[in-house]
Amino acid sequence: MSPFLAGITWLLVFQFAGEAIVRLAGLPLPGPVVGMALLFAALVVRGRVPESLGSASDGLARHLSLLFVPAGVGVMMYARRLADEWLPIAVALVVSTVVAIAVAALVFRWLATRAGDP
Amino acid sequence: MSEPIFSLWVYLAATPLAGLMLTLVAYVAGFAVYERARFHPLANPVPMAVALVVAALAVTGTDYRTYFDGAQFVHFLLGPAVVGLAVPLVREWPRVRRLALPIAGALAAGSAVAALSAIGIAWALGASPATIASIAPKSVTAPIAMGIAETIGGVPALAAVFAVTTGVVGAVTGKYVLDACRVTGWPARGFALGLAAHGIGTARAFQVSGEAGAFAGLAFALHGLFAALAFPAVRWLVQFPY
What we know:
The structure holds two protein chains of two kinds. Chain A is mostly helical.
């Protein structure tokens, strides 16, 4: 069987397990995030990443941006609100994102240097 | 349009095929330009793809709901893609463990700044409460941001639009911001991109370096997990006195 197909199947199995746990336990968490934690634990126990999962997750990660296009097209439904409030929205999105990148990177570097891993 | 062609059009436009195909064609076109531009950050494929799809829908008079019937198959893959982020995390695990302190610190500081600065700026410039609540989780990946917006009084689909826009802004400006801050290490650069610009920033980081991509994926996943817990908790604390 193609490793990619087996890998995708495993990803769906772990996503399903994550969704099931979230529903059953009533957790305020997204199912895929719990699925990721489960897969992470399974791979750490196993000690290595099987080729199948490697090829499937690399394939999805390479074109992660594609997966956001349908949500982005939703912009057309809010043309009116965006036209009315374009200034606060544009300034908040751009400034806040730039500041968040800078703060995260600088805090990371500061603490990494202190830990001896620049 | 002649009768048989018109009925063919009606049939095709009503099936999920049209929306799905349009999404892929637009992205492939956007990615071809990105490749041509040698992956220059300003040539990000997402805004190009979104603009092409919106133009095609406007020309054909198709509404978003009809389009999404087809595009949902692409949207759905966000789930398995998030699960798959465990893989780069396991590959980089020894490094991640050694960097546990910077990871925790950057996650706490970055996520607080990402949410509070967006809320503060939108509020100061007179945005409506529903817009502010939709913009607050903007640095969290779209599917999680939608859930958060719903719990704090925002509009889920609008939150998804803001999240995607934020991802694009981060992927486009990231290199320049990080260069200006003189942060050169791939772990710090990747982590900052994934934290502030979730999946779109992570895609950008993977295109630049595998190590940056792994740390971006880690930040993207941790921020989603953290925000999904923190937003409802803060909301609960804030309304408690009343």
